[in-house]
Amino acid sequence: xxxxxxxxxxxxxxxxxxxxxxxxxxxxxxxxxxxxxxxxxxxxxxxxxxxxxxxxxxxxxxxxxxxxxxxxxxxxxxxxxxxxxxxxxxxxxxxxxxxxxxxxxxxxxxxxxxxxxxxxxxxxxxxxxxxxxxxxxxxxxxxxxxxxxxxxxxxxxxxxxxxxxxxxxxxxxxxxxxxxxxxxxxxxxxxxxxxxxxxxxxxxxxxxxxxxxxxxxxxxxxxxxxxxxxxxxxxxxxxxxxxx
Length: 244
Known about the structure:
The chain has helices at about 5-15, 20-40, 45-60, 65-75, 105-120, 145-155, 175-190, 210-225, and strands at about 85-90, 95-105, 125, 135-145, 160-165, 170-175, 190-200, 205, 230-235, 235. The protein has about 240 residues and is α+β, with helices and mostly antiparallel strands. The chain folds into 3 domains: about 10-75, Arc Repressor Mutant, subunit A (Orthogonal Bundle), CATH 1.10.10.200; about 85-130 and about 205-235, 2-Layer Sandwich (Alpha-Beta Plaits), CATH 3.30.70; about 135-200, Alpha-Beta Plaits, CATH 3.30.70.980. Helix 2 runs antiparallel to helix 3 (about 45-60). The longest helix has 19 residues, at about 20-40.
């Protein structure tokens, strides 16, 4: 299993998603706007918007804020011109990293991303340098003490893999097309969903010791903290002792 699952555990344990409420809201507003711009304002016809709405509601974003963001994206209100840009690079020990951004100033964004890579022992690569290693999948992290039920529900509804995480957490990997259906099935069966997202899974991984794991985690966290960054993915296989 590539390092995306352990990275999910590390982020959850450290409370990364709730640490900076305003920054989280800013990233979600951008995603809502772009999702509506690209796929329309109807969640039923726009899976990307549906996921963004779920995340915004899960973060307790005010309803009027959500509606304004969707309206801007769908053309009902004036909006900033946001572009999706993906950057590729390498971290310590040759770890492959993909950085997804939404920006109104590509020069600013690439400068900030390049600076983060160089500051934490990595380097920004060229287009295509690492993207061939990754495939987009859905990931759902649930909490349950009924392991058999989690496996049965997941596998019978399109899950590719179910991995036991920390405590009573299970990390479920599913194809993008089955992502929303599986999430709905889990909710209908009153399974507690801790986290859910679309991410990039690597075809191979690089195993890291504790010291290297901490270096890569510092780089990933600093990339995620950049205002224009929406998602960060790597093929790192983190040591079990990382930030324990």
